[in-house]
Amino acid sequence: MRVIIGGIGYRNLRDHSVGVMVTDILEWREWPDHIAVEDLSYGPIAVVQRFEDDPPERRFDRAIFVAASARGDGRAPGAVTAYRWDGVLPTPERIQGAVGEAVTGVIAIDNTLVVGRYFGALPDEVIVVEVEPEVEAPGEAFGPTVEAAFQSICGLVTKLALDPAAAAELPLAPLGGVRPGAAAR
Predict the structure, then answer these.
(1) Which of 67, 104, 167, 171 is deepest in the core (most CB within 10 A)?
(2) Straight-line distance from the first to the last Cα atom of the chain, in angstroms, rounded to the nearest whole number
(3) Chain centroid to CA 98: how far?
(4) 3-173 adopts what CATH topology?
(5) Whole-number Å distance between alpha carbons of 108 and 142
(6) Cβ–Cβ < 8 Å for 121, 112
């Protein structure tokens, strides 16, 4: 099973850099040949093209995307949510909005997933590891809660890449994962 770990975010945007920083750290680790680690923060349309450029025999079976996402749904800053995305696309209007934002340079986990799935470029299995940001401002350092969680995020992503059973145990969920107080599917 070919697996890609992809970090999504903005460099030098404090907590919104977490996906990029995870891949920066993990790319130096020795991985089996079937696992790739890449910074995929170059926009959803370019991510689609990156996946489409692989020949059929080199396509990925699983993608693990890591990013910060301010959900505003009661999650505490620094909270980590991991889930298997159900792949259900939103309304046509929201898809069009995601494509429009992608073309104008917005880099966000939801846009990457929606655009990637809409154009059929993503693997069937997509795992999302997202972090609720605490500090949304320019700068290099994470906020204290994301900094405290960073090593465990790297550990979780590593485990999900190497252990298919761990990935299978994650809840199947829509974009944003299981909301606080909601039941997993």
Answers:
(1) 67
(2) 24
(3) 16
(4) Rossmann fold (3.40.50)
(5) 18
(6) no
Q: Are 47 and 14 in contact (CB under 8 A)?
A: no
- DSSP of 134-159: S--SSBSSPPHHHHHHHHHHHHHHHH
The two tokens of residue 183 are 């039941």
Domain residue limits, the chain? 3-173
Q: Is residue 57 within 8 Å of 72, Cβ to Cβ?
A: no
**5-18 residue pLDDT tens:** 999 999 999 999 99
Cα 84 to Cα 86: distance, rounded to the nearest angstrom: 6
CA distances from 161 to 5, 111, 158 (A): 7, 23, 5
Cα separation, 150 vs 131, whole angstroms:
10
Asked if 19 and 66 count as a contact pair (C-beta separation under 8 A), the reply is yes
**pLDDT-based confidence at 180, cuts 50/70/90?**
low
Range 163-179 average pLDDT: 90
Q: Which amino acid is at 65?
A: F
